Amino acid sequence: MPSRKFADGEVVMGRWPGSVLYYEVQVTSYDDVAHLYTVKYKDGTELALKESDIRSQSSFKHRKSQSSSSSPSRRSSSRSRSRSRSPGRPAKGRRRSASQSREHKDDKKKTIQETSLALAVLVLFKPSENNTKRYNGEPESTEKNDTSCIILEQKLKPDLEIKRVLEQYSLRSRKDDKKTEEIFSEKKTFVAVKPIEKVPSKTKELEFGGRIGTFMLIFLLPATVFYLLLMCKQDDPSLLNFPPLPALESLWEWRVFGIFLLWFFLQAVFYLLPIGKVVEGLPLSNGRKLQYRINGFYAFILTAAAIGVLLYFQFELHYLYDHFMQFAVSAAAFSLALSIYLYVRSLKAPEEELAPGGNSGYFIYDFFTGHELNPRIGSFDLKYFCELRPGLIGWVIINLAMLLAEMKIHNLSMPSLAMILVNSFQLLYVVDALWNEEAVLTTMDITHDGFGFMLAFGDLVWVPFVYSLQAFYLVGHPTTVTWPAAAAITVLNCVGYYIFRSANSQKNNFRRNPADPKLANLKFIPTATGKGLLVTGWWGFVRHPNYLGDIIMALAWSLPCGFNHILPYFYVIYFICLLVHREARDEHHCKQKYGLAWERYCQRVPYRIFPYIY
Ligand code: NDP
Fold first, then answer.
1. Distance between CA atoms of 531 and 438, rounded to whole angstroms?
2. Taking Cα atoms as reference points, which of 392, 506, 520 lies closest to residue 439?
3. Phi-psi region at 210: left, alpha or beta (left = phi > 0; alpha = psi -120 to 50)
């Protein structure tokens, strides 16, 4: 096998895909399977290039002196001539020197070259969902006119052109903007571009503390769940009052495990029912789109009906409360077994089906973050199924079981106001997620993260057993909530929900149909991927308004538990940490996808989640 020609960190000249333009780039890595170099352009854009599209800087400089070639090096020696055709340049006669006039005979040829270059760059501006790591529309060199970056001089003209277009494009409301439509139609004209070859390369930047961090999380996450559940069972769940450890044999009961399996497979059956529409997910790295059945809400209705039947026949749902820890252990054991299965099968998965975030080559890291992006058994998508069904619907059932347990244990004819609030708020959240199930297809969990221990444990253990902590807490620690307090908490939850829902809908609708007349008054910054970045509406308020709404709701879920202990506030504290971390991950991905367009968005919208705070 031939060895690689360019080393990591080396500064070379990389061809801009689909054009004959060469830019100064730095080699960041090499994929020896796909034989592709990942290179970073000066504006932060990263692309995968073939070796034939890369040249050393020295060969480039050497070729600059040659005169007969129509290669990029030939063109770089005629910088002044090319600029002469730039729209912003002074009149020809004023700038043309005697020596330049000798080269006049080449003008016709160059005109053709320039035209095709202009097209090449404009082609890069065409909308493409697939090639997200393309030119971001605003190369640094345009603004700085950086000649140290040896860009062929023809680039200047199209760049200026694009910048002008961008400015027109982004700073106007789209309502009456005919020019925008013209630009869109212009873009549609240039479709014959060779797509950039995008093969998932090795994950270089490790998240979650890398190998050591992920190794520790594999133990820390289950330990946290069991600590929280044990604490909740205590009369005094103060932080310093460490709970006694239960006997090991008390943690496992086959009957409980059987019920858990029954639950999981019942949800799988609901998922397989041919009801609900089938939609396509986002394009994968190979351009293929997977199909997903949207029937989570139906699964919820069927589950509710099944639970209704069980209650009618006097099934004691508070069995769940009595064996809560055993259920959590069963779910954890199942998620561990599932993660092992997922990792083993991922070893046979083709390279193109591996997750961009979980392909480091380190066993622990890939096991934790998930090696395979979309593991499927036939058309059964394991990750998509686990994301919203067994855990999320299970959370609502657990809450209901806690409500019934509270009534039984405290001999109540109706649940406490605090329990009603917690149950209703969280029910709304789950129903909303299931109703808008399609939106999950564009989340990081589906598009970036593989299916491994992190999501398997998160979906099947963390969500149902930690998110139901407030209801679990209220069973053992009754809390009185006055009506005015209940009203205030309800308003808070509604405000959070309103921000969360409208922000998510605004973005989802914009992604689905940017030309939607309902969104006509929103402004956006265009990017060369074809997607815009909203800069007005919720997404102009902070960069993650949906997280803000989610956090406000999390607070409203904890407040009915009073202020005696911090335990029921675990969720909101953890959730802030989770979303701050998630926001940082998302920023990083968006910076890679959109380069300077993203930076420009950050300048326009400086706060990430909390206005004027963070
Ligand atoms: P988001 O819905 O926040 O989406 C982030 C993506 O939106 C970015 O990657 C980018 O993707 C796009 N985007 C960013 N800025 C803009 C903009 N200005 N205009 C248009 N598009 C933009 O992703 P998450 O998956 O993190 O969250 C989804 C929901 O799930 C949130 O409401 C969150 O609160 C919730 N959530 C809940 C959790 C829980 O445990 N309860 C856990 C995690 C999330 P692109 O440009 O590629 O479209």
1. 19
2. 506
3. left
Q: How far is the CA of 8 from the centre of ligand 1 (A)?
A: 33
CA gap 316, 318 in Å, rounded? 5
For residue 534, the enclosing domain spans 481-613
My answer on whether 603 and 552 are in the same domain is yes
Residues 444 and 381 in one domain: yes
- Number of domains the chain is built from: 3
Q: What does the pLDDT read at residue 273?
A: 92
Of the residues 557, 589, 590, which should be mutated to test ligand 1's pocket, given the most ligand atoms within 8 Å of the CB?
Answer: 590
CATH code assigned at 23: 2.30.30.140
Q: Which residues pair with 54 in a beta bridge?
A: 14
CA 333 vs CA 300, 324, 456, 503: distances in Å: 25, 14, 11, 37
Question: Mean pLDDT for each 10-residue chunk of the chain (614 residues)?
Answer: 76 69 79 73 69 78 40 33 31 37 42 32 33 34 29 35 38 38 30 40 79 93 94 86 86 94 95 90 82 94 94 89 95 96 91 82 91 91 93 96 94 94 96 91 86 95 95 93 95 96 89 81 83 88 93 95 91 92 88 85 91 85
Which residues, other chains included, contact 43 with Cβ-Cβ below 8 Å and sequence gap of 6+?
136, 138, 139, 140, 141, 595, 596
How far apart, in Å, are the Cα atoms of 463 and each of 42, 268, 307, 594? 42, 18, 20, 32
Q: What is the CA radius of gyration of the chain?
A: 29
Q: What is the pLDDT of residue 19?
A: 53
Residue 472 alpha carbon to ligand 1 centre in Å: 29
- Predicted local distance difference test score (pLDDT) of residue 72: 32
What angle is formed at CA 141 by the lines to CA 203 and CA 94, rounded to 5 degrees?
Answer: 160
Q: Which residue has the tokens 């009961």?
A: 253
Nearest CA to ligand 1 atom 34: 547
Within 8 A by CB and 6+ apart from 326, the residues are: 250, 251, 252, 253, 256
This prediction has a pTM of 0.70
> Quick one: CA dihedral 582, 587, 593, 594, positive or negative?
positive
Measure the CA–CA gap between 567 and 232, rounded to whole angstroms: 8
**Is the same domain home to 330 and 453?**
yes
DSSP per-residue string spanning 352-374: GGB-TTS-SS-HHHHHHH-SBSS
> Ligand 1 pocket: which residues have CB below 6 Å?
443-444, 500, 504, 507, 510-511, 531, 533-534, 539, 544, 546-547, 550, 582, 586, 589-590, 601
Residue carrying the six token digits 């009073």: 562
**Would residue 48 count as lying in a domain?**
yes
Q: Among 221, 467, 547, 580, which is best to mutate for testing ligand 1, by the most ligand atoms less than 8 A from CB? A: 547
Asked, for residue 107, whether it belongs to a domain, the answer is no
Beta strands in 248-298 (DSSP E): 277-280, 291-294
